[in-house]
Write a structure and sequence with these properties.
heterodimer, A: mainly alpha, two-stranded antiparallel sheet, 13 helices, B: mainly alpha
């Protein structure tokens, strides 16, 4: 009896000791910040004023941001950015993954080429793109001009084109990741299904829409959920390329939060905006989760 | 028989066409990189020449690279800072995650499952929610504007621990249990049995973490202030605003910032791609 109790004690102590480093990190950098942020979102507090100035204001911050055009524009841009990058990015990468998976030579070399933008740093890639898209001398506009196209867009300096340019760049950068995950999902599909379909006289398109799309849908679901979460959080590319401009044409939520917090030091407002962001991600994810029954096939 | 070889060659032709088509697309994926590389070799006046000289007619590579690395700009310092922060963060995170994963998968202690659930529940919360309080914590603990702060922050990740835990669960308990009967303590089992057996997952995490930390922009931006502490990603944005007319030099900086990633990727390709395919999420 005594031995067993001693054993259990040892198990408990060693368990906590092994967990200690990660728990410290978790408590200091996750748990406490989450709770503190919840509290801040209901408070009015400017960092420069010190703690004595902290006031509990309830949901006032949320009312403030909802009437702030920077916030509503950021929200709108984030929604457009997320919808575009997820829908276009996931569809293109599925098609490319299907072709890469079965129908080409040098599969691995090609896969690495597609993956290259994903492992490269967002900052370096953004800088390269800003130069390539430079309105006057940039190779993209020079090329279009040589084709005789007039009235070329100013891309990142253009109210109408800045967001589409960011979206295109983001899709380009993440395509490789989507392709790699899709290819893993595709190899799991039983090839008997395709053989049976061929015997039934199905063409390539029918095979794609009737077999590949439904069978790979759990992977698609995963990529859509992750894509939504990551696109909603986009920051690096926007901060480096446009800082939200011109005007409010490319402000996104993460940029709004960063600005409120670290340029205007309004920690309360920044926290409310961050929670608003979380709530939206959460709702969208829940809707996806419920909606998955309609289109995701599990074996 | 004849018909069969006929369809075979038709299939091969299709395959060749698909390969050519996809190669073209893959090439456009790499065009910005090729442009970057070629611009880094050119004289400034030739950078925007059109049609693009993919292989420069006049080379200025040595002088461009020498200038960026000469120390006239702080580029070498930023580079060194990045290597320091990235290597230390990677080592720290793999260690901390492996210990946590071992506790969660192989030791039966009180509140284990409840604690694990609390960890998991935090996974969905975006960084933006915690960044303001983290900034406060950094100031209180005097970690603001230090590399130590960045390293400590990076040394913990729920994702890393989760990845290793899932892997350790696949290692049969009988192994560690028989070692326990032989009198080995948890520390020895962890070091001598679990770590060697978890090697593939450890390498995957190490590679992914290296890439993510090297590329991290937001944390250094928020938690560093002094220029001498800047990492390469912050340094490059500064470089870009300060020397904005020297595109060839900016491209040298961009090329140099990507090289370590390429090296890590080429060495650990298999581990990185597998890790991604296993459902990797940044974090």
């Amino acid at each position: 009896m005594k031995v067993i109790r001693k054993q259990a004690l040892i198990e408990n102590v060693s368990g906590y000791l092994f967990l200690l480093p990660s728990f410290l990190g978790f408590a200091i950098f996750f748990l406490f910040p989450v709770l503190f942020s919840l509290f801040l979102s209901l408070s009015k507090w400017n960092l420069s004023a010190g703690f004595s100035d902290l006031k509990f204001v309830g949901i006032k911050n949320f009312k403030t941001i909802l009437s702030d055009v920077w916030f509503t524009d950021s929200m709108k841009n984030s929604l457009i950015f997320t919808a575009a990058t997820v829908i276009v990015g996931v569809s293109i990468s599925l098609v490319l993954a299907v072709i890469l998976n079965r129908m080409v030579f040098f599969k691995n070399t090609l896969r690495v080429m597609f993956f290259l933008p994903y492992i490269s740093s967002a900052v370096a890639v953004a800088i390269v793109w800003s130069i390539i898209l430079q309105p006057t001398y940039g190779p993209v506009n020079q090329f279009l001009r040589s084709l005789g196209i007039q009235n070329l867009p100013n891309w990142l300096a253009d109210v109408h084109w800045a967001l589409p340019a960011l979206i295109a760049m983001y899709i380009w950068q993440n395509l490789g990741y989507n392709i790699v995950v899709f290819m893993a999902g595709l190899t799991a599909i039983n090839s008997d299904l395709y053989e049976a379909a061929v015997i039934d006289g199905a063409g390539a398109l029918a095979k794609f829409f009737k077999i590949t799309v439904p069978m790979v849908s759990p992977t698609t679901f995963f990529l859509v959920i992750m894509g939504i979460i990551n696109s909603f959080k986009v920051f690096d590319q926007v901060q480096v390329l446009t800082q939200g401009g011109p005007g409010t044409s490319t402000t996104v939520l993460a940029l709004y939060i960063y600005r409120e917090a670290f340029q205007f030091y309004d920690m309360g407002l920044a926290s409310s905006a961050a929670w608003a962001m979380f709530v939206i991600i959460f709702i969208v994810t829940i809707i996806q989760w419920i909606g998955q029954k309609r289109w995701v096939t599990y074996d | 028989m004849i018909k069969k070889t006929g369809t075979m060659s038709k299939q091969n032709i299709l395959k060749i066409l698909a390969t050519i088509g996809l190669s073209l697309i893959a090439l456009t994926m790499t065009l910005p990189f090729l442009w970057m590389l070629s611009a880094s070799f050119k004289f400034e006046v030739d950078v925007f020449k059109f049609p693009v000289e993919w292989i420069p007619r006049k080379w200025n590579a040595i002088s461009n690279y020498a200038e960026v690395w000469s120390g006239r700009y702080s580029f070498p310092l930023f580079y060194f800072n990045s290597i320091k922060v990235t290597v230390l963060t990677t080592i720290a995170q793999v260690t901390v995650s492996a210990m946590g994963a071992y506790a969660f998968s192989k030791i039966r202690f009180k509140f284990r499952d409840a604690l694990f659930l609390i960890y998991l529940s935090m996974m969905m919360i975006p960084d933006q929610v915690t960044i303001v309080p983290k900034f406060m914590v950094f100031r209180w603990l005097k970690l603001f504007d230090t590399h130590l702060g960045l390293i400590l922050l990076g040394s913990f990740s729920i994702y890393g621990m989760f990845l290793l835990k899932q892997y350790m669960m696949t290692i049969p308990d009988s192994l560690s249990e028989s070692a326990r009967i032989d009198g080995a303590g948890h520390a020895r089992i962890f070091l001598k049995i679990m770590l060697p057996m978890t090697k593939p997952a450890l390498v995957t995490l190490m590679m992914l973490k290296f890439v993510w930390t090297w590329n991290d922009f937001q944390n250094p931006l928020v938690f560093l202030q002094s220029e001498k502490l800047y990492t390469i990603q912050l340094g490059m944005t500064k470089f870009m605003t300060e020397y904005n007319s020297f595109y060839s030099l900016i491209m040298v900086a961009a090329v140099c910032s990507i090289i370590p990633l390429l090296i890590v990727f080429l060495i650990g390709q298999r581990y990185i791609l597998e890790g991604m395919a296993m459902g990797a999420v940044k974090g």
